[in-house]
Amino acid sequence: MTAPIPDLPVLAEDDSMLSRKFGREVANYFSGSPLNRVSFLRTDHAFLGAAFAHPTASFLLVDNLSPLGKDAANLAYVGRDDIVSLTGSAPFDKSEEDQIKEFNSNITHPVILFLGLDEKKKTGFEFREYKGSPYFAVDVTPKGSIEAKAKGVIEAVKAKTGLSFIPGGRLMTLNAPEAAIYAQARALLDWNHRNPFCGGCGHRTLSINAGTKRVCPPTDLADVPEGAAPKQRPDCPTRHGISNLSFPRTDPTVIMAIVSADGTKLLLGRSKRYPPHWYSTLAGFLEPGESIEEAVRRETWEESGVTVGRVVIHSSQPWPYPANLMIGAIGQALPGDGEAIHLGNDPELEDARWYGFDEVREAMVTGVSGLGEAAPKGYKEGGLRIPPQTAIANQLMNAVINGYLTLPAKI
Amino acid sequence: MTAPIPDLPVLAEDDSMLSRKFGREVANYFSGSPLNRVSFLRTDHAFLGAAFAHPTASFLLVDNLSPLGKDAANLAYVGRDDIVSLTGSAPFDKSEEDQIKEFNSNITHPVILFLGLDEKKKTGFEFREYKGSPYFAVDVTPKGSIEAKAKGVIEAVKAKTGLSFIPGGRLMTLNAPEAAIYAQARALLDWNHRNPFCGGCGHRTLSINAGTKRVCPPTDLADVPEGAAPKQRPDCPTRHGISNLSFPRTDPTVIMAIVSADGTKLLLGRSKRYPPHWYSTLAGFLEPGESIEEAVRRETWEESGVTVGRVVIHSSQPWPYPANLMIGAIGQALPGDGEAIHLGNDPELEDARWYGFDEVREAMVTGVSGLGEAAPKGYKEGGLRIPPQTAIANQLMNAVINGYLTLPAKI
Questions:
Q1: How many structural domains are present in chain B?
Q2: A193-223 tens-digit pLDDT
Q3: Fewer CB near the terminus (10 Å): N or C of chain A?
Q4: Does any domain span residue A107?
Q5: Pairing state of beta strands A66-71 and A164-165?
Q6: pLDDT tier at B371, thresholds 50, 70, 90
């Protein structure tokens, strides 16, 4: 059975000059969050404390990157009372300055990630001019000094609600707004989880700014007798000025629909791990010191031998597996030798081919499915199979076969 | 005196369908490298060894992020003989497997970064089907166990050539192709320098893949008697499967020219550190779990209160200070209240204003200079000042005032 492909986020129609010239904006899966991050309030403990304490606050529990869910399409949220045994009743009481002073590397603090305010739900919470229902994600993975408490929260919530955690992996079944909330929560909890130590000096770090920053404290109270002064730690470069090591990491990735010089064919490739006849657009990580356009040309040439001229950036997609930003582009191959396929540079692809737009159009009807799913009804063995609408690859192919290169844009 | 603004990279004209519809690609400063990175050969020690040993190989010496230069506009390269006292004569002799086995955290290895092949210079080097002159960057910063040797190389090269290192800081005077080479070298040497320890386990890491990967070895020979078995280190999550912690980090940053709903005005802002009357486009870091388009809307609202509808991604710029990818976008404000400026959300900007296209056009003639430079001749006190052509901010403004929203594209 083929799993249903979830909806894409929906943007309001608009008739701006940009939309008239370039067409309606493509909103990709994992974007379209209903929450306002009010990122500038993450350092304000009066705000965080009030949001945490408000009766309308919603908490998404995440255990080993698996979120609590109603079903495969919907996340479930719990209330503050369900988590205080793990978080304490006022986890944002202390200023960050005091948290850093009192840092003890033997003590595990659960990451309580502030996600944002749902401004459509005006349920009574307000702070200065900001109104809406507060959302948090809490990492309840049992580990370190909070292992027992975290297990207690998990078991109590399961028993009370009858709900369970949706297996993490590559979760692609959530409804659009829920998928965007999960993407934010997963990316940031995973980043905190992957970086317990400082890359600059090798010592343990502390999560602050409601889960969006990690600092390297200058002292440590671990194994220090009660009342004694904390141990000084060696000097660390991240303590001098602003360091990117303190902030979450997002890896820019290019993914590109490459069109033949005459605008009639699409370059698609397949890796060995794909099911038979399954092809997608080429993709790869952007490298330091290169533009998106250069990365598109380099990766296309390295993987397929094709030489690309003009590159236009089409749309983008957050991809929380684990921390990618998919930057979707459309590029056009140089004519003649530029279109010759050569797989011998980087042996990453098993095959790459030029597909006529008609073949891709046919695949949009009979060949679309998730990577692990069976082909849909109507699929004839041997026909082209391609990724679902939730993948930006599909959106790029769709744009190209629907006249992106030539037609006047419509909204 | 105003420093000359360096050239921008030049792309070949093309008449592809994409160029006809969207206009010629904008190539930004720090992009446009003449080198083919052949990234898939970085793990091939036979290739790296042959490239290093070839008499046409060029080495860019970098001391504390400052490159050796002929003058402010041109990098200088030395030959292999000038650096072997630091690197040894065959630094790629050992396989990476052996380097990892022999890891000794007391020993500093200079990072020898493979930059790529200049295929226009067919000077005799070839490996399989790849031909061109090999380029490397070598970190000669005196530190750790190589301090004395690194100092020796620096002094010998200065004495022999009479050249000096161009002060690092925000080097913006190099000619376009040199700027792109420096951007690649700086970003990667800086990443190696900032990450001597593993974020996953806190132990020292080792640079491999010719400067483009850092691994966390399972053993360490530091302080182990000659001939004895190496010390085992604790298990590290980065050793299980592929971890992004092993690869260079690039931070996606959005920078956006926001146009008024009626398409006649541009939203510009200024920070306190700018000189008087100096304004630029708004910008900010993209966050995990958001698309580029969402980041543009969020950052614009947070910094200026303006609400943005349609966003189109225009072009991109590598920005090696320290590791950013500037993603340039053009967005259109929603009419009415959407255009109201409110600086009270995130207090990052000192001011933000709507400027008529004519004022920006005038500034393109009389108000363009580098951030630290004096205003150009013809500037009248009180007039708008804006960043130079080497900044993507200038390119975005330029596109908008020249009809990007409405005119049919030309190449």
A1: 2
A2: 999 999 999 999 999 999 999 999 999 999 9
A3: N
A4: yes
A5: antiparallel
A6: confident
**Would residue A6 count as lying in a domain?**
no
Residue B118 lies inside a defined structural domain of this protein: yes
Question: Terminal CA-to-CA distance of chain A, rounded, Å?
Answer: 35
Question: What is the per-residue pLDDT for A110?
Answer: 97
Nearest CA-CA partner of A141 in A174, A175, A114, A165:
A165
* pLDDT, tens digit (0-9, with 9 covering 90-100), for B199-214: 999 999 999 999 999 9
> Is A63 in the same domain as A198?
yes
Structure tokens at B206: 């080792």
One domain, residues B261 and B126:
no
Q: What is the widest separation between alpha-carbon atoms in chain B?
A: 77
- Asked if A191 reaches chain B (Cβ–Cβ under 8 Å), the answer is yes
Same domain, A180 and A211: yes
Confidence at residue B1, expressed as pLDDT on a 0 to 100 scale: 42
Can you say whether the dihedral through the CA atoms of A280, A285, A291, A297 is positive or negative?
Answer: negative
Q: Does residue A371 contact residue A391 with C-beta atoms inside 8 Å?
A: no
Interface test with B, best of A14, A16, A254, A348 (most B CBs within 10 A): A16
Q: Are residues A256 and A241 in the same domain?
A: no
Domain that includes residue A62, residue range: 32-246
Domain boundary among A178, A213, A246: A246
Q: Is residue A108 part of a domain?
A: yes
pLDDT tens-digit series, residues A165-181: 998 778 999 999 999 99
HSE-up of B382 (CA within 13 Å, CB side)? 0
ipTM reported for the complex, 2 dp: 0.97
d(CA B92, CA B52): 8
Residues A321 and A237 in one domain: no
- Please write the tens of the pLDDT for every residue from B89-111: 999 999 999 999 999 999 999 99
Which whole number is the average pLDDT over B119-125? Answer: 91
To test the contact with chain A by mutation, choose from B239, B285, B290, B410 the residue with the greatest count of A C-beta atoms within 10 A, namely: B290
Please report the sign of the dihedral spanned by the C-alpha atoms of residue A188, residue A192, residue A195, residue A201. positive
The Cβ of residue B109 has, within 10 Å, a number of other Cβ atoms equal to 19
What would the pLDDT profile of B328-353 be if each residue is shown by its tens digit? 999 999 999 999 999 999 989 999 99
Q: Do A332 and B17 touch (CB under 8 A)?
A: yes
Domain end residue (candidates: A246, A273, A304): A246
The beta-carbon neighbor of B252 closest among A291, A325, A345 is A325
Do A105 and A144 fall into the same domain? Answer: yes
- One domain, residues B191 and B258: no
Separation of alpha carbons A401 and B351, rounded Å: 45
List the beta bridge partners of residue B331. B258, B311
pLDDT along chain A (411 residues), means of 10: 76 90 94 97 97 97 97 96 98 96 96 97 92 98 96 98 90 94 98 98 98 98 96 97 96 98 97 95 98 98 97 98 97 96 95 98 95 89 96 97 84 55
- Asked if residue B186 and residue B260 are part of one domain, the reply reads no
* Interface subset of B 109-148, CB within 8 angstroms of A: 129
